[in-house]
Design a protein that fits this description.
β2 and β3 form a beta hairpin. The protein is built from 2 helices and 4 strands. Strands 2-3-1-4 form a 4-stranded antiparallel sheet. The protein has one domain: 2-Layer Sandwich (Alpha-Beta Plaits). Helices cover 28% and strands 36% of the residues. The chain has 76 residues and is of the alpha+beta class. The longest helix has 11 residues.
């Protein structure tokens, strides 16, 4: 197992239900260990098993929900 931390800036959330909805959907992805999405800071932190789930699949899933996603370059 190869764990990876991914920090993303997520735009388009209008309330706490948006962040809860993102977490609810991504938790169904195989390889996601844990997630924390904050409406207040427009950020999400995700811990994945990179042998099972890749970063782009996670990003695509969030974008399909209608949100903008950018990698948090400050976290690199």
């Amino acid at each position: 197992m190869s764990k990876e931390s991914i920090k993303l800036n997520i735009s388009g959330m209008t309330c706490v239900n948006c962040s809860n909805g993102i977490e609810r959907v991504v938790k169904k992805l195989k390889g996601l260990e844990s997630s924390s999405v904050s409406f207040a800071s427009n950020e999400g932190e995700f811990f994945i098993d990179s042998e099972v789930l890749d970063k782009q699949t996670l990003i695509n899933k969030i974008q399909k929900l209608g949100y903008g996603v950018e990698e948090d370059l400050k976290a690199l």
